[in-house]
Amino acid sequence: MRRRNVKIIATLGPASTSAEMIRTLYATGADVFRLNMSHLDAAGLKKVHALVRQVEKEVERPIGILADLQGPKLRVGAFADGSADLVNGDTFRIDLDETPGDKTRVCVPHPEIFAALEEGSSLLLDDGRIRLRVTEANKDYAVTQVVTGGELSNRKGVNVPDTLLPMTALTEKDRRDAELALELGVDWLALSFIQRPEDVAEARKIAKGRAAVMAKIEKPLALTHLQEIAEIADGLMVARGDLGVELPVEQVPGWQKQITRLCRRAGKPVVVATQMLESMISSPMPTRAEVSDVATAVFEGADAVMLSAESAAGDFPAEAVEMMNRIAAQVEHDPTYPGIIYAQQTQPEATGADAISAAARTVADTLNAAAIVCWTNSGSTGLRAARERPQLPIVVLTPIETTARRLALVWGVHCVLTEDARDLDEMVERASRIAFQEGFAQPGQRIIITAGVPLGTPGATNMLRVAYVGSDTKRS
Asked: Residues with catalytic annotation?
């Protein structure tokens, strides 16, 4: 049982793909495991997925798995000498000719880039270290001026920040990876390099409800459609790596806050990711700035914070998860934390389900209740309860394993698998018993129960009940 609300996502990789290490990462605080499809083939995906499910069975707690699709990776070709020095002010040509490049030109084997480039467009190479401005655009080549030069070597990445590329966010590799991941039973699909709401809609058609879809916000064009993307996606990730390449870096913190608050208003999970404890790849301790970065995301009310290379390929994967757990727990016990969280409170939607969830938080505060207990099949009741960010535990009871696993990523939610109740009396009795057994309530304390009646009806939260945890609960 976690004594914090924000969830931790740990990426698995060479440093952490053993049952023992996965078990350790879970024990030290990881709630969800990310599988990076940029570095996994079919056999690797099956192996790591099976290891996580093995650990899940051992700990008897639902564990979420997020499969992060690679997306379209744009790269330059090869150089005759392995690299070339680009000098500020020089002319540099990019084209479709596969002849090895030099200091005057290189192949960029992506026709879709040339179909979209216009005079004045920007190109960023090697994670933004090199910047080019297009002076002449053609269907199979572009002439550019070097704005910021440097050494450019083989196969470095290409970013086109201010141009809508005529391409989908799902490559053929992504489609194969997604289908296999869905067959295995992953809980979330993360979609990389989206530009438009249509990209998310395409992924949802592939998922067909078998997994929730998370849109990674890492391109400026996605920011112009942020509201529509948030409406279609099941959750958003602030992917600060590429976002910080394609945007001026000083704009990223502001966008992080805007995306986080948009998701809170919409009741959609939001993940803050990339370089959160970057120095812990090679150091057992983070920098003070990194600690503040994680703390800022927690203060802002993000649903989850994510480790990438720190847990996947670093020297101290368990220490990184433990540190993130310690930071989050400390922030949530800070005396300023409740005020900051409540200051971002938004009005409920004009629906009965939202009204019930908002009322549950108010009643729980007024009565000093021990916990809010939500019965749910689809998970929507748990999401609504989390949207309110109550300062008391949210216990979600569900008979559906996939629902519990998906909610492992959601702020404050503690999921317990249990059969549907037969009637209201059993619903109240079992909610009280589980709240006690899970350590959230003691005999004599009150809990707030929300559910949909008739029981088991998806998305129909329409009942709120105040119940006492009886003295006979211990014997149940």
From this structure: 34, 75, 216, 274
